[in-house]
Design goal:
The protein is built from five helices and five strands; from the N terminus they run βαβαβαβααβ. A five-stranded parallel sheet has the order 2-1-3-4-5, sandwiched between helices. The termini are far apart. By secondary structure, it is α/β, with parallel strands linked by helices.
Length: about 110
């Protein structure tokens, strides 16, 4: 499973999420013009088989218009620090793996309490 963290998420999350995927990168690591646009991120993820993780509702709109791939893990959270975001993702690890590998839906939404 290949995961791509959007620019609105900290690159520090990579080390904390290796238990979900050893192939996880941040948008800042991409060899595309920076700052990367949502469409260039989308195209990179599609071309390279990544699932996007983002808090940006623009990706939700793109998925609804263009359909997957790539799939989107949409973090519908408010002002959570990096550690709490990582904890939330890890709490949903099994669901994320199922979503990416087996479920046909294009968007998986994760909410904070």
């Amino acid at each position: 499973m290949k995961l791509l963290l959007d620019e609105n998420l900290s690159w520090r999350m990579i080390k904390m999420l290796v238990s979900i995927s050893e192939e996880i990168i941040h948008v800042s690591d991409l060899k595309i013009t920076q700052p990367a646009t949502d469409i260039s991120i989308w195209n990179y993820a599609k071309k390279n088989g990544f699932t996007i993780i983002s808090k940006d509702d623009d990706f939700e709109k793109i998925v609804l218009l263009r359909k997957a791939p790539p799939k989107l893990i949409y973090l519908k959270t408010y002002n959570l620090d990096t550690k709490k975001l990582v904890d939330l993702i890890l709490e949903n690890k099994d669901k994320i793996i199922q979503f990416v590998n087996y479920i046909e839906n294009d968007i998986f939404e994760i909410y904070s309490n």
